[in-house]
What does this fold into?
Amino acid sequence: MSEWAPRLRRGARLGFDPVRRTPVVLYPEGVVVLNGTARAVLGACDGVATVPDIVAAMTARYRGVRPDDVLSLLRGLVARGVLHPEEAG
Amino acid sequence: MTPQPPLGMLAELTHRCPLHCSYCSNPLDLVRRERELTTDQWRSALTQARELGVLQVHLSGGEPLARRDLPSLVSHAHGLGCYVNLVTSGLGLSEARMVDLARRGVEHVQLSVQAADEDRADIIAGARAAKHKKAAAAAIRAAGLPLTINVVLHRRNHDQLGAIIDLAEEWGADRLELANTQFYGWAMRNRAALMPTRAQLDAAEPVVRAARQRLAGRVEVVYVLADYQDRHPKPCMHGWGARQLTVAPDGTVLPCPSAHVITGLRFDNVTERPLAEIWYESSSFNAYRGEDWMRDPCRTCDRRGVDLGGCRCQAFLLTGAAENTDPVCVLSPHHDVVEQAVVPAADVPFVMRR
Ligand SMILES: C[S@@+](CC[C@H](N)C(=O)[O-])C[C@H]1O[C@@H](n2cnc3c(N)ncnc32)[C@H](O)[C@@H]1O
Ligand code: SF4
Ligand code: SF4
It folds into this structure.
């Protein structure tokens, strides 16, 4: 897990919806409406930063970020097809 | 309860299609070319959809490439900020055309494949179509777009499942969607010929499981169960009028592509009523929102939040009332109609879609 450097799947991109006034991620199978933290986490998923790097970046930026929350958010985004699965790196 | 704005729109640009798939879910009563929306009407529908909250547009049909204005509609949807998904049989998808569509804003393509070998595929599609598909897949990959291969499974191709998976891998698919036939439109007409046997479905599971393991991280394999053979129905469309809307070739706005079968409902047309009003206020979109419309056994069932009582179109088609429990459910008092339908019939010929 600590080696996992999450990255967006091919065809997925971050965006901003002026209608809902919220960040979103658009990808082949659908759309996920994001809150600010989720947007920041996804923005850090560049395929280079590992999960501990992302957690460190988030704790520096937001109060009360828990590593487990970041990990479960990332796994949820894998399950929805936004991020590449962990095994695949 | 105020509904949330929609996230997706299925734009059925035309019902015209060079293929005649026996499993096609399009309606028996296809919209003719003269009644199709004009380019400007489609542009207006797309603009209204974005203003309403739609972020993903699926350009489908029929065959969307049969519309000559497809490139300009792609540009328009992309310019609005929508994610554009092209759903195609691949016929007529040359490399030059694909590059142009990608440049204009198509971000993902779903390519349908009928079987693992060309002869079988052409019989299922009722057209000499299969030989064009490999080049279409290559054109999509060459344009740098993610490729999903869609295969509708039924009695006449389940035996090729392993070879279909190999083909998807060989053609460089990012994703393979193996969907057992849903029985609407022409597929309902051909139900007896298409119904997979229990043995076929049982054989499919280990094949899919092994493929998922082998292809992990390369090709995502999605397998959609045959819902007639499941114990409970699927939560259709995440709920009626909850996340998505469909615009038919003539501008009829539907909560799901099959909803026109429910004869008791009156569906509005995007050329006659603003899309936002149709989404929030129309009788058709409000008919089965939430849970108030439910009858027993759904009304008091613990699973109603999970499966939403199944599909309203299927309930209507099989029991005559859309408010009934989807009869796929073992708890439905009409479940016997499904039990009878899954008994394998002797091989009957296909009625090809027009
Ligand atoms: C109606 S088709 C239109 C687009 C294009 N002509 C094609 O076939 O790809 C849209 C999608 O629905 C799938 N489909 C068609 N009939 C179906 C059925 N009875 N059950 C499940 N999926 C179906 C097709 O494989 C295709 O991916
Ligand atoms: S499923 Fe087949 S017949 Fe139906 S629209 Fe697609 S390619 Fe045409
Ligand atoms: S009775 Fe209705 S809610 Fe309960 S499982 Fe069956 S379809 Fe779902």
Summary: Residues 23 and 187 of chain B are 4 Å apart (CA to CA). Chain B touches chain A through 23 residues (CB under 8 Å). Chain B has a mean pLDDT of 96. The two ends of chain B are 42 Å apart (CA to CA).
